[in-house]
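Appendix B, Record 12. Input sequence as logged:
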Amino acid sequence: MQGLILLDKPMGITSFGAVAKIKRAAHEKRVGHTGTLDPMATGVLPVLLGRATALSGLMLDADKRYTATVRLGVATDTDDITGTVIKNGEVNVTSERLNNAVSHFTGEIMQRPPAYSALKKDGVRLYTLARKGETVEVPERRVTVFSADVVSYINEKNEFTVNFHVSKGTYIRSLARDIGEFLGCGACLSSLCRTYTGGFSLSQCISPEALTEQNISEYILSEEKAVEYLKEVQVTKKQAVRFSNGGQLGFERLKGIDLTENELVRVKCEKLFLGIGRADIAKDQLAVKCVINYPGDGI
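Logged structural output:
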């Protein structure tokens, strides 16, 4: 099987566990998700199957939207509610102060990822080092918070809810932690739902529990939908054969081409999506980034 499945990942399973369910139902070894969700998180998890897994990296670059619930007055070692409490603080926060704190972390910011994360140091996952009790200095990195809107204010559990729209690589756990530190009472993430990524929303997703060997094909979308945001370049049948064999295509033989250096495009022959091309302006040609389908598949 080949294509794209949009999962609504439930709470309590890892992204790897969700992918394993797809592998079993589809009888396909090549299956990969396009952006990890922590076990406590739910929501949109695009999964690619077969040769389409070559597109995974392109979807990782997409911006994302989340609905996050943050608990004030509690800080943990993992920056979420599943961790060990390392600090308790008194919560005395007005709605105005809360809005100011959330707004402070919008725009382009420097963010320190959680110590318990899948990032690597010297080839070892940070969470592996953290579980061994090793203290690691996690460097800050630049991310963008396009918007952060408080949708419900502090309740009896000292929790509030925010809708975040963020760039790739942004940790919502870190935002929760930093908002708590800014307010002086500490905070951690208590729930998280990814509502949008790569052009796909939660309403388009299916629970992995609902997928079976018998019905999974009904939920497989064309892998081209994962990269529809890229420009389309049409090629002839002869050019399609050359491209699928790894050959570059000269710009002079392509119609209406207007690309920038290293710009990626969808390469198609009539209705068949062949793969992704990369503009090589210096050589005046379209290079092959990856081939997904071959001329014999549909021309």
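The two ends are 19 Å apart (CA to CA).
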